[in-house]
Every structure is written in C-alpha cells, then in structure tokens.
Amino acid sequence: MKRMFAILALLFWAPLAFAISPYFQGSKLPAGDITNLMAQVEGKLSKGGFNVIGKYAPSGLPGYGVVVVTEPGLLNAVRGIGGAAIVGAPIRVGVKSDGTVSYENVEYWLRAYLRKQYPLADRSVKAAHGKLARALGAGKPTGGSVDTKDLADYQYMFGMEGFDSDKNLLIEQLSFEDAVKTIQENLARGLGKTAKVYEIIQPDKKLAVFGVALNDPKEGEGWWVKTIGADNIAALPYEIYVVDNKVNHLFARFRIALGWPNVGMGNFMRIVEAPGIIRDTLTVVAGGSPGN
Length: 292
What we know:
Blueprint: H1 2-17, E1 19-20, E2 23-25, H2 34-47, E3 51-56, E4 64-70, H3 72-81, E5 91-96, E6 101-104, H4 106-114, H5 122-136, E7 141-142, E8 146-147, H6 148-151, E9 169-172, H7 176-189, E10 194-202, E11 207-214, H8 221-228, E12 238-243, E13 246-249, H9 252-259, H10 265-270, H11 274-286
C-alpha cells in the first residue's frame, strides 16, 4: 500500500517538477534610495565575475531599477550559436527601493530563446546561474511559471506569436554596419522618446542587441508595466537586435507574456495596444516608418 501511495505521489508531482519560473529572488537589501541600491547590486555583480553593461530607472516606475550584465561563459555560448540567440546574451537584475532584488532565471529565458539548441548552452547557463546565486543570494523562484517542455515553442495562447514570428522583423538595412549605426544614432537622439540602456555588438558575427528604454510618459513601459505588475521588473528593458542587415524585435504578445507568465488574460487585454506601440517605436529607432 505504501508503495502504491508513493507511485501516485510521484505521478501527481511529476508535471509540477518541470515547471520553472522566469526569476529568482536575491537576498534583500535594506530599503533606501534606488540609485544607491542599484550601486550596491552593481558592486556585487562586478565582484561576482559579471560585466555591467547598463543600468536604468524605468520612466514612470519610481522606486524601481534594473542592472544589466554579461557573463563571459554565457556570452561565448550565445556567440557560438549565433543568429537570434544574441537576445539571450544580457542578464537582467531588478531592484526595488524596499530592498527587493530579483534576477532572471537564465535557464527559463535561454530555453525560450535557444529552443532546440538549448543543450549547446546548458553548461554555460548553469554556471552563470550559479554565479548569480552566489553574488546576489539563492532565493526562491518568482514571477509565475511555465513547463520546461513548453518553453521551446512558447506561446501565451494558441495562435499567438512565438520566438520566430514574422512580426519580429522591423526593417532591412543595406548592411550590418548601417543597421548598428542607425540604431546608435537614433537612441542617442532619443528618437521616439527612447534611450539606450546597453549594447552588445559582435561585428565579426554581424550580431548586435540593444536594450531600449521606452520613456514615453503615456505609451512607454511605465504604462503597461504598472498595469500587469512591476514585480517582474527584471524583464526590462525591451530589446532590439540585429542579425546581418535585418533589425528585429520580439513581438510583444510573445515577449511580454514570456516575462509575465502569471498575468491573466484580463490584464493583458488592458494593454492590448502595447504590442503595436512597441513595434512602431522600435521601427523608428531602427530607421523605418511606424505602421510598416
């Protein structure tokens, strides 16, 4: 009888054992000014072997901040895979003025981004996660969950866009160099009320990814993040990426859903205009015209 109950228990828990969350909680810091807290987190990450490439306080979200880093082993793994995998190179860490620290679950995001190629990076992913846990604290998973087997073909709902959606493409430039230069110049100008948070450029591979702050007070990330929940702040910033001469983004019905898998359809319907707004804004940054 005991053996039967043990088998039934395993069967019951087996589906749950493979669900993973997009973030982990780090060790909490004393509450304080967000700039000072971000500096503390930056110091821990640098000491832990990460390269800090960007930090920002999202517009319209007072008391929240994000620090973005790269980790050499993970960066090399992504570089080796190439193509759209470049979006998995940056690692994001969220900070709140109450001292809460959260960091992305690298496995969760890389399984969604690398898909069938994930095994090529698994060792690097686990090593990067271990370094994050040592630097920031090995807290509990947070932010919702998705079954591991579903991440490779993740869709919020059947029929919605996935990682390789045709809607990702924003514009084709004449060359990789033209694409990168255009993005850099437009972000420096603040076109579309944007700003650069970070950049990773690998010219020999013709790959690049930029973190873009969406600062419009009415249509920027402050609006839709507050609507669906700012606790998942480590999902930010939104990114724009270049592969050869093609400038892309991850369409928001995929990208936002991936970062907020615990949000119900009711709240998503409240930001139904966000995917088009984000696409139009990033199209302008890429050098195109909105609505194309």
